[in-house]
Structure formats: C-alpha cells, structure tokens
Amino acid sequence: MGQILSNPVIDKEHHSGEDRLTAFGLCAMQGWRMSMEDAHVVQPNVLNASHKDHIALYSIFDGHGGSSVAQYCGEKIMSILQRQESFKKGDLAQALIDTYLQTDEDLLKDPVLRNDYSGCTATSILVSRLQNKLVCGNSGDSRTVISVNGRAKALSYDHKPTLASEKSRIVAAKGFVEMDRVNGNLALSRAIGDFEFKSNSDLPPHEQIVTAVPDVIEHKLDYNDDEFVVLACDGIWDCLSSQECVDLVHYGISQGDMSLNDISSRIIDVCCSPTTEGTGIGCDNMSISVVALLRDEETPEQWFERIRAKNYHIATSFESRRRQVFAYYQFPKDNASVFEVTTKKPQDRFSQDNAAQALSTSVDNDHDNVEINDTDTDSDAVTSNNKRKGGPAASGSNGPVDLFSLEALLGAGGIQVSQGPNNVSYIHGSALSEMLASLSNAAAGEMVPEEDDEDDDSNKNEKKIEEI
C-alpha cells in the first residue's frame, strides 16, 4: 500500500465548466497518501472558433513513483495532441495513440525527466460533434465508463500484468511477472514514463516490457441513450465497480440539488477509507471527472431534467454504498457522521469529553514507542517517519496517538501545545510543573514525595522550568 499519513489530507481540488458539447464536474483529493500524484485535463473544446468541428478532451493521469510525469501530462497533453497530423486530419483514434507515444518521446528529450523514475497511467476521451463520436484511449488501470440508459458500458479495460496478452509481451521483452507485478515492482503493465521498463533498444515502443500504447475504443453517440461519462483513477475503481459508480452518479442526479461537482466530490467521500487498519482500499489518491453529454442547444440544467425524467430506480445511496464498501468498519448509526473522515479536520475530531477515555485506552494498550513529527499545526495531516501498524485510532482500536489527539489529551489536563517561531512547538500551562515533577521522579526511580516535602519539591520544579 506504500507509505501513508496518520490522517488523510481532505482538501479537495474542484473544477467545473460547460460548453456546447459537454459539461463536467471534477474532484481530486490526496487522501491518505504522502503526496498527490494525480493530474487531469478538463477541456470542453480544444479547437478554436475557425474550425468546423467542436472537440472536447478529458483525461485522468494517475502517477506512481512520483508526480513528475503525471504533472507533465496534465500540462502538456493538449498541446501534444494538437501537434499530431492524425488529429489535424480528424483521425481521433490514431491521434490518441500518437499523442501518448509522443509524450514519451518528449519526456525523453527533457534532461531532467528522462532520468525520472516515475510514470503515470492515462485514460482520455475525445468527443467530436462533427463526427458524432466519442473515442477513448487508455493505458494502465485508470478507467473510463459511459452510462447508456443507466447501464455502465466499458470504454476502457484495465491493463494488469496478469492478463495473458500483457504477460506475453512482458515475457517476450525479457521481463517477468512476480506477485502480480511487472518484474515484481509495477502493478500495471502500460503507462507513460517508467523508462526503466522501456530500455530495450532492439524493440519498438509497443513491444517494451511496459508500453505507453493505449487501447482505443470508439463509441457512436446516441443522445437518446447516452447520458454521461465517468473517468477516474484506480483509487475509485478499487472501491466501486463501474455499475456502482454509474448508479451513484444517477443517485446524485435524482436528488435535484447536486451539481456534477457535488456528485464527484461525494463519490470521493464514499471511497475514502475511514481508517488505515482495513484492507488497504480507499487509501489511494483519488480523482474523478463526471462528463455530461449535451444535446444540441441543451443547457446543463435541461440535461439534469432530462436524465431525472428517466426515473431510474436506484436502490442505493452515498451513505449505504460507503457502509458496504467498508463493511468491516463500525460507522455511527446516523448518516451525518458516515463521511466524517472527509468532512471534518483531524484536529476537530477530538474533544475534551473523549480525551480522558482516549488517554486511558492509550496508556492501557499502546506500549509501542511512537515518534511524533514536528509539524505545522495548520496542516491537514501528520506524517510518520516509520511504518505504521495502523491508521488513526477508530472506535475500539488501539492505534498510536497522533499529534492532534495528543493536543487534546494534554489540553484535558490543563497543558497546551502552541506554535512558536520557525515551526517550533512548545508546551505550557498550569499543570506543566506537576508533569515535569512526575517525569523527573519516574526517571530517578523515586516514590511520590511526602506532603512535608511538597514546598521544597515545588521550588526544585520551578528551577527546572527556568533552566528549560
């Protein structure tokens, strides 16, 4: 699962927009991972007004081993697409293939990125009004699906090393599959970047151990049946099937007061794990775009009305689906608390009412040495330098105490943790002298002093404080 934080970073990146062809809502969140390695493109029209056609481009890039390649794709992929002769000729399927391969070539020309060990999966769609067609290109295990009369239709297929077609290419290129990973390392078999797996100069790009060549699927649009497209990284698809995701979008549409942005945000809430003590799903970066397919002269509001008028029976909700995804976790009975991990800052989850109980649990059950990193108190997450046994302590769990819970525990005893200059934290409060006396006595192996010595010990403690 890789290194993870003690609390998820829940700040979300939102984008929304519309044009004559499509409307979209995108949400992305770092979550439990140490950094955000996803990138995206949301471009309702990549052509200028002089063109006869109107082409929308949407992409999700899921980075691994770092964020450099994914960020490069997010910034450059549209301009690389526009340079391709196949795109200028209107051959959209070949244009996506050429664009992915050209991106690899451009990365290799960069003196820094050519030596970067990161890579990224890519799933992209081009929607053409003139051709009345949607084309999807996919490399890796990000995924794109389209809702056709409420049913999920695959526009891409996950590229895993265990697939017979993928494994045969890997082995033919002198690679191997071990523990379901390419050379025991990479959990996917196609990606942009990852040049350590593309170093055989005797083989063309499509025959390398890992290739950027996308599978391409074309879909003829029928606006009576075709409703919207979902593009997402594997952080979403690890938690939801294609149909479950489509159902959740329809559920959001049926509510009558949710935008595409709201729906994509809530789906991320559904998929973000409430704890790191489970199976590992829900602890990845998450990015999702929901793209509405608009008829001629149709506004997004009219599109919402048209889809709601189909009156699908969706036997799920965001709350119920979240409970099913993380069935091992004991969520509160009230639905308002089901999404607490993605809506409530870690420092706000603790109160003086539960601080004493948390302290008792920690003292009785947690005998491990815990290292607390110095951190900015305004940060959304606290990182651990060592591998964690578990995530933030859930109800009834015995996980290590992080900085936010430590602040609450100290606060309950009259001691505060404050931020000083240069991000240096210091402890103060009325009970500080008592705490220092207790620690000093414990270190010296002394018994608790008799009442007669109380004044003398107090003076000693004051002297220690002054020295500190």
TrEMBL record:
Name of this chain's protein: protein-serine/threonine phosphatase
A biological-process GO annotation: regulation of mitotic DNA damage checkpoint
Q: What is this enzyme's catalytic activity, as reactions? A: O-phospho-L-threonyl-[protein] + H2O = L-threonyl-[protein] + phosphate
Query: Spans of biased composition, class Polar residues?
Result: 352-363
Give the record's keywords alphabetically: Hydrolase, Manganese, Metal-binding, Protein phosphatase
Q: Which region ranges are annotated with the description Disordered?
A: 347-398, 442-468
Report the sequence similarity comment from the record: Belongs to the PP2C family.
**Names of the cofactor(s):** Mn(2+); Mg(2+)
Annotated EC: 3.1.3.16
Q: Where is the PPM-type phosphatase domain?
A: 23-293
List the molecular function annotations (GO) for this entry: metal ion binding; protein serine/threonine phosphatase activity
- Residue ranges, compositional bias (Basic and acidic residues): 458-468
Q: Pfam families per the record? A: PP2C
Specify residue ranges for compositional bias: Acidic residues.
448-457
Q: Which gene encodes it?
A: TDEL0C01730
Entries under SMART domains matching the protein = PP2Cc
